[in-house]
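User: Here's a chain of 210 residues. Predict its fold as tokens.
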Amino acid sequence: MKELDLLKKDWKKNENSFEQISEKDIYKMIHKKSSSIVRWILIISILEVLLWTFSNLFINTDDVLKRMNHPEIVLILEYLTYINYIVVLIFIFVFYKNYRTISTTVATKSLMGAILKTRKTVQYYVWYNLGMIIVSTILSFFVGFVYNPDMAFLREKLAANGKTMLVSAGILILIILGFFGIFWCFYRLLYGTLLRRLYANYKELKKIDI
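Assistant: Prediction complete.
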């Protein structure tokens, strides 16, 4: 926000004669920055979907699912995948609408409202994805352990030894927490940085609006 600080200093120096022009310039800069940030949020979310889609093409799970011989499980997993894609696409559509709103908004209060709405939407999106990561990880382990015939020997061994089962459960929890931590850091780095900049713009607009 160095540019805004310079503009505000210049505004104070010429407070009597250029107050309205300086305020207008500050608003234009904030408007442009906010629009750019939301555009990047939209771009990153689209790239994220494309990345997951292409990665799924290279991960072959068909053979494993066929060996399970449980078509109802396969159907449930497919439905969950479709539902997840639908939800994510809805989020992307909302991001696009937020971008269009911020790009075309001229009133200060409207822009402030659009920024807050965008922040909430991104936060919901991040928490949804983190929740889905936990659910999909647990579901993958459960389905693989219970229905995969290759795991029959391990199931018998764990059933015969309660201590081994507790250790395995602990390892599973650590793996889930590890996945959650990695993706939490990823989302915090990408979306968190953009949201902090967006909120900084909101606070500057609030000063102008007073």
